[in-house]
């Protein structure tokens, strides 16, 4: 990775290695996060908004939206800078929600490159990463994979 004030700073396809692991800093989930996310997407399910209802649930308290956690994880990944200016397209995501995330939990993202495939039809190659979203106890709360098209390194003039 390199810093350039007006161009890509992320890894180019050629610089990404199979097995490469990246781990982000943490992000604590707040009640305001849940309220704001629920308002934006229109999901006011009691799982997220009704503390009294949730006291009697299998979780015992309100939980964060699974998609909120996944969204924050993608943001944490972006903050690493590994794909800034070099990711061309996000192909897809396959995630399993394994454990609840509660108000006050701190999550972080761990990715591992598991596949790398050049493309002759695109201006970059495809990478697939194993994704693990971990809580403060290093428990995996979400796991799966995502893939993206990453730019080839520009040819020197």
List the helices and strands and how they pair.
Layout: E1 21-23, E2 27-28, H1 31-41, H2 46-49, H3 51-55, H4 66-79, E3 87-97, E4 106-117, E5 124-134, E6 140-151
Q: What attributes characterize this protein structure?
A:
Thiol Ester Dehydrase, Chain A; 6 strands; 22% helix; elongated
What does this structure look like?
This protein is of the alpha+beta class and 157 residues long. It has one domain: Hotdog Thioesterase (Thiol Ester Dehydrase, Chain A), CATH 3.10.129.10. Helix content is 22%, strand content 32%. Strands 1, 2, 3, 4, 5 and 6 form a six-stranded antiparallel beta sheet that branches. The longest helix is centred in the middle third of the chain and has 14 residues. It is elongated, with a radius of gyration of 18 Å. The two termini are 21 Å apart. The model has no long low-confidence stretch (mean pLDDT 94).
